[in-house]
Amino acid sequence: MVAFLTFAIVVLLFVVLVLIARAQELTADLKDGKVSFHNQSKWNGYFLLGFLVFMFVGSAMCFKILGPVMLPIAASEHGVKTDFLFNTTMLIIGIVFVLTQIALFYFAYRYNESKGHEAYYYPHNNTLEVVWTVIPTIVLTGLIAMGMYEWMHIFDPEARNKKMMVIEATGKQFNWMIRYSGKDGKFGERIIDQAHVSPTNELGINWEDPKSHDDFMADKLYLVKNKPVLMKLGAQDVLHSFFLPHFRVKMDCVPGIPTEFYFTPTKTTEEMRTYLSTQPWWQTINPETGQPRWQTFKYELACAELCGKSHFGMQRDVVVVEQKEYDEWLAKQTPIYVAPAAEATSVEVTTDSTNTEVKKPTAMLGKK
Ligand SMILES: [Cu+2]
Q: What is the three-class DSSP state of 221?
């Protein structure tokens, strides 16, 4: 209600200002038979200067209020470099933005139309052209080169050859199917045809392939600290995007085109909580849980592609643990091959007619 009233007041103020300006124009019209823009131009100048101040104060407030809510420090090896690149780019373009906006609005104020003042005609200056072409070219080339250098390190072919933990994630409307390769470290073959894909075997796993017998599905993405992980990504229906914001990982999942991403988590969930417990915003109480926010912090897997009406529900918890804890978790997992078909390892989130979130287990797994 307060937001609506504030909005209404702002709109009404704007209408009043427009009407005052219009009334001024009409009175000027009546005075000397022609409209004088001089006064209007002066006011435009003041408004533009006011807008400049409003814009900077507003931006500063946004940074102050929303800054602490933004993503915490990166929890992966390459994430630190990605953050460095992002911050460097923001700093450079931020400085340019501030300087150009000050020049733009100040000039509009300082040189507004006034009686007896004629605009200076200044059509061309070679030195200026060279300066504002060469400097941005050098700066942007530098930024792009830095980005490409880091990207080549992120997708280092040598890292690709190292032993990595391999996990498969397939996006579908509106769920992630996360498959681990089990004890043998190898995935069972998938055959996408009518004989293999069914409501109880959505991935089309070939049960004749012995490698499939220890594959298991997980409702959470379990990762090991400092252990490189290769995510093999796919989609079953439309475009999805595999997004691990805390690890600065994002890769599209495309039907029919396998994609992949490899990265190394560097902080366990517990370590991240310990770090966040030192951050002021994370120390505040979450009204939903009654606890400090850091205590319930979870890494998150989300879909970053607007893929349909329940896109928001494509979310899973990510847990980073030490090797020992991972081994304990691994020992508790049941392979799909032996899991009863009705055992739900997947939760589908939909909305009902009243737009309320409904979580429904899907009995999509189990042998055919
Ligand atoms: Cu999606």
A: strand
Residue-wise pLDDT tens digits, 153-173: 888 777 777 788 889 999 999
Backbone angles phi, psi at 356, to 5 degrees: -90, 140
> Ligand 1: distance of its center to the CA of 62 in Å?
29
- Dump pLDDT digits (tens) for 323-361: 999 999 988 888 888 775 444 444 455 555 555 544 444
Distance 361 CA to ligand 1 centre (A): 18
CA 164 to CA 231: how far, in whole Å? Answer: 10
How far is the centre of ligand 1, averaged over its atoms, from the C-alpha of 353 (Å)?
21
| Ligand 1 center–CA 220 separation, angstroms | 17
In the reported structure, the alpha carbon of residue 225 is separated from the centroid of ligand 1 by a whole-number distance in angstroms of 27
Q: Ligand 1: distance of its center to the CA of 257 in Å?
A: 16
* pTM for the full predicted model: 0.75
* Residues contacting residue 49 through CB under 8 Å, at least 6 positions apart: 105, 106, 109
Domain ranges of the chain: 1-26, 165-282+292-361
Phi/psi of residue 248, nearest 5 degrees: 55, 45
Sheet of strand 221-224, all strands in order from the earlier edge strand to the far edge: 221-224, 315-321, 299-303, 240-244, 249-253
Alpha-helical regions (H) of 67-188:
77-110, 126-154, 157-161
Residues whose beta carbons lie less than 5 angstroms from ion ligand 1: 240, 303, 307, 314
Which of 2.60.40.420, 2.60.120.200, 3.40.50.300, 2.60.40.10 is the CATH number of 165-282+292-361? 2.60.40.420
CA 213 → CA 28, 341, 367, distances in Å? 87, 14, 10
> Cα of 233 to ligand 1 centre, how many Å?
12
Cα(302) to centroid of ligand 1, in Å?
Answer: 8
Q: 304: CA distance to ligand 1 center in Å?
A: 7
CA 74/CA 245 separation, integer angstroms: 9
